[in-house]
Each structure stands twice: as structure tokens, then as C-alpha cells.
Design a protein that fits this description.
Blueprint lengths: L1 H11 L4 H4 L7 H5 L7 H14 L6 H6 L9 H8 L3 H11 L8 E6 L3 E7 L5 H19 L12 E3 L8 H7 L7 E2 L5 E6 L12 H35 L5 H7 L4 H10 L4 H18 L4 H7 L5 H12 L3 H11 L10
Parallel strand pairs: 3-4
Antiparallel strand pairs: 1-2, 2-5, 3-5
């Protein structure tokens, strides 16, 4: 699971797992459970912890992505590598990309001589966008290399919607297997694949296994959606996109009209406004408990300034953020080693 790989990455650099997992609700037992699932919101907090604890490591997302071999993606990864052809593997990835660990969305554009895969990060919070893009690109190249082990060039071009970093050599080293040099400062992050590659057979092709894994992908997606319901899906969108995301944007992301979203939430006994306040309040409590200054928390949660955040927090909890943090610290007792906080 992704959370395990990120925690191990931090451990290799001297960060204790309990430090990396603070505020996520993830315990070491969960990391050791192969059937456990970590939500996007939990992983988002984990990534923020990782970036806060290792602020001086250039290309941390690139390094993380090299750990994401196909088996790490479960049924999605096995369905891809078992697909009969490159084209069918791309169909699997495009259809079930939401089962990956990325915070981005994947869009596909078919053109006459090439396929373009666009990583849409419009819903990814600014403070993790660079890490997310780097991890995605590195992971995709890591997964693709075994598919075409004899091909010197996998990508016709690679555009990246980030400015060229000082550690550009890290990009070139890690993404060298893609067969092309990255173009920075582009309008979108996009990978272009020559259409001539689509009919090529894959070395581990097994249609029966591929079909079985696709069925597992469908079942996993169904279980996730059934378990969280509409309100749970809205919470996940809010955790990923921030409390300032409006109802129209979330409805579009869920392929619903605003009217239908309101009705479905009402059927579950809640509303968009209640979920937005609940989600932001939960994140605020976790961040205050971690000891971050109010000013930094306000910025992370998208408030214009600390006073705006303080006013909102007091309306939810009846106390100021400072007092809440002091009370939480006063009541804190020594934690067991397996505590999620």
C-alpha cells in the first residue's frame, strides 16, 4: 500500500513511523494489514507530514515513485501487466485510474498518430501538487518499463506543468527509461504515446488473468462507493480539494447535477455545508494537535488569514484555536507506540 511505502521512505531518512503517521488515524497495525484501505484524505495528511519532515530533499516525489511497481497497485497493476497488448493496458489504466494512489485525475485523448494521457491536478492542493506530479510521473515510468523492456522509447513526448527545478538532473535520471526528455513549464502534464505501439503484445500477457483482475477492479470500486455513500465521497473530495471547493465543482467531479447531489445528501441526513464544516473542522483539530502555528494552519486550509480561520473555528467549536490547542496539550497523556497520534 502507498502509505507503507511512504512511511518506509521516511524511515530510511531517520523519521520514525509514528512521526510520519501523526494525525492520519493510520496505525502501524493498519500498515501491516494487506487488506486495509487508506483513504485519500489520510494519505494527503501523510504526504504533508513527509514534506514537512523532509523539506530539504530535492525530488522527493520522484524518489517515492520509483517504489510503485505494478504489484503495488493490486488488481489494477496486475490487470495492466497481464493485458494482451499495450493498447488494452492503456484502456485498463484509463478506466480504473481512480484505484491508484494519485490525487490527480487521468484523461485520455486519442489522436490520429498518438495517444495523450493528461494528469489533471486541478483538484490537488497547492502544497502537495509538485510532490504528486513527480510521484505520478516516476511511478508511471516505473510501471511501464516492464511492459516494453526491449523498446528504447516509450513516450513520444513528456510535458510537465511545473517550472524546471534546480534538481532537473534527478528528473532525467529517474525518467530516463521513458526515452524522452521532459519539457517543463507547459500548460498541462501530459504523456504522449505513439499509436504504433498500441498493437504490440506484452511479455506477461494473459487474457484470462487480465479479465479476472478487471473484475476485481470493478468489485473494489463498487465496495468503496457503497461503503462511503455519497456523503463519504463528498468528504473525500473536500479532503483532497480543500474547504473552499464549491458544491458545483464537487457535483461535476462526481458526475452528478447539483440538484441530484443535494437530494442524495438529504437522503443521508446531511448537506454540503454541514460536510464542508465537518471536514474542515476535523482537519483543523488534527493540525492544531500536531503543534502547527495557527497562521500555518489557516494557510493550509485556504483561509485568507489567521483571524478568518480563528473566527470560523470558534463558530464550530466554541473556543479559539489557541485555547483548543492548549487544552489538547494539557490533556495529552503518554502515547503507546502504536497510537495513531
Amino acid at each position: 500500500m502507498s502509505a507503507t511505502m511512504l512511511t518506509e521512505l521516511a524511515s530510511e531518512r531517520g523519521i520514525e513511523p509514528t512521526q510520519t503517521l501523526r494525525g492520519t488515524g493510520i496505525t502501524p497495525e493498519i500498515l501491516r494489514d494487506p487488506t486495509a484501505e487508506v483513504t485519500a484524505g489520510q494519505e494527503l495528511i501523510l504526504v504533508r507530514n513527509l514534506l514537512a519532515d523532509l523539506p530539504d530533499v530535492p525530488g522527493l516525489g520522484l524518489e517515492a515513485g520509483t517504489r510503485y511497481h505494478a504489484p503495488a497497485f493490486g488488481p489494477l497493476g496486475f490487470a495492466m501487466i497481464s493485458s494482451p497488448t499495450v493498447g488494452e493496458a492503456l484502456q485498463v489504466v484509463t478506466r480504473w485510474f481512480d484505484l491508484s494512489f494519485s490525487f490527480s485525475k487521468l484523461h485520455r485523448r486519442d489522436e490520429s498518430d498518438q495517444i495523450t494521457l493528461v494528469l489533471d491536478d486541478t483538484g490537488v492542493p497547492d502544497d502537495v501538487r509538485c510532490f504528486n506530479t513527480e510521484r505520478d510521473l516516476s511511478a508511471i515510468v516505473t510501471m511501464m518499463r516492464p511492459l516494453l523492456p526491449t523498446m528504447p522509447i516509450m513516450l513520444a513526448s513528456l510535458d510537465i506543468a511545473l517550472p524546471e527545478p534546480s534538481y532537473v538532473d534527478r528528473y532525467r535520471d529517474i525518467l530516463a527509461a521513458s526515452g524522452t526528455k521532459p519539457n517543463f513549464g507547459m500548460p498541462e502534464t501530459a504523456m504522449r504515446i505513439d499509436a504504433a505501439l498500441l498493437p504490440l503484445a506484452l511479455p506477461q500477457a494473459n487474457r484470462l488473468i487480465a479479465e479476472m483482475c478487471v473484475q476485481q477492479c470493478a468489485a473494489l470500486m463498487h465496495r468503496r462507493q457503497a461503503r462511503v455513500g455519497v456523503s463519504g465521497q463528498v468528504r473525500q473530495h473536500l479532503l483532497r480539494r480543500g474547504h473552499t471547493t464549491d458544491q458545483d465543482e464537487v457535483a461535476r467531479a462526481m458526475n452528478l447535477t447539483v440538484r441530484t447531489l443535494r437530494r442524495r445528501l438529504a437522503e443521508e441526513g446531511t448537506s454540503y455545508r454541514e460536510l464542508a464544516a465537518e471536514t474542515t473542522g476535523m482537519l483543523a483539530e488534527e493540525l492544531l494537535s500536531s503543534g502547527l502555528p495557527v497562521e500555518q494552519i489557516a494557510e493550509r486550509l485556504g483561509y485568507a488569514d489567521a483571524s478568518s480561520f480563528t473566527h470560523a473555528f470558534k463558530s464550530w467549536k466554541g473556543v479559539t484555536p489557541g485555547r483548543f490547542a492548549r487544552e489538547r496539550q494539557r490533556l495529552r497523556v503518554p502515547q503507546r507506540e502504536d497510537s495513531p497520534y
